[in-house]
Amino acid sequence: MVSLSTWFRYIAHKLEYSATISWKNYKRGQITDRELGDAVWKNLFQGKLTYMHWNKGAEMAPSIGEQGGTLLVRKLPAADPRRVFVGDVVVLKDPDNPDNFLVRRLAAIEGYEMLSTDEKDDPFVLEKDECWVLADNEALKAKEANDSRKFGPVSMTDIVGRVIYCLRTAVDHGPVQNSHFSMRKDSPVLEVELDVDEMAKNHKS
Q1: Which of 33, 59, 105, 193 has the fewest beta carbons closer than 10 A?
Q2: Which of 59, 83, 105, 168 is catalytic?
Q3: Choice among 74, 83, 104, 168 that is catalytic
Q4: Those residues with Cβ within 8 angstroms of residue 173's Cβ, 6 or more apart along the chain or in another chain
Q5: 66: annotated active-site residue
Q6: Is the pTM of this model over 0.70?
Q7: Residues 6+ apart with CB under 8 A from 60
């Protein structure tokens, strides 16, 4: 049973998401002044804040199983340092294949100084809207991990969501360990929208 306070927090998150998405569409000229208010209410009452995503590969083990997993992803209206934080597991566009998506952990954001273990590489600072993402699986080499050690910094705008729950098998599932800030923000969304049975139905074994 979801508490009333949780529902209020959930509705507040939905309203923020709906307003931000609708305003972005308005600024792009996709909707008119008259349609703006309708779009906010439509997204608020009809849309969900999460979607399911199947992830394959061992790059994010042990957070996500080596055989992959069905993930519950929280949609982000915009990825910036106020909405995603270092330590979050995020879904982002593959820099090498825009039609594909990667799941990696956010390791650094704009303003961070990056130092290499290779003395030949000079340190550098991540520029505005840049971030550094890494695979969790420490057993993999940089090329195998297919993360920022291979393709470099990525734009924050390439981040489309934050992974909040992982179903590895029907009996092995649970919340994904993100930053403290994000886990607190995502708790009402997870409590209202999590449906393990539905995730199990969509799971690819």
Answers
A1: 33
A2: 59
A3: 104
A4: 165, 166, 167, 196, 199
A5: no
A6: yes
A7: 89, 103, 104, 105, 135, 136, 137
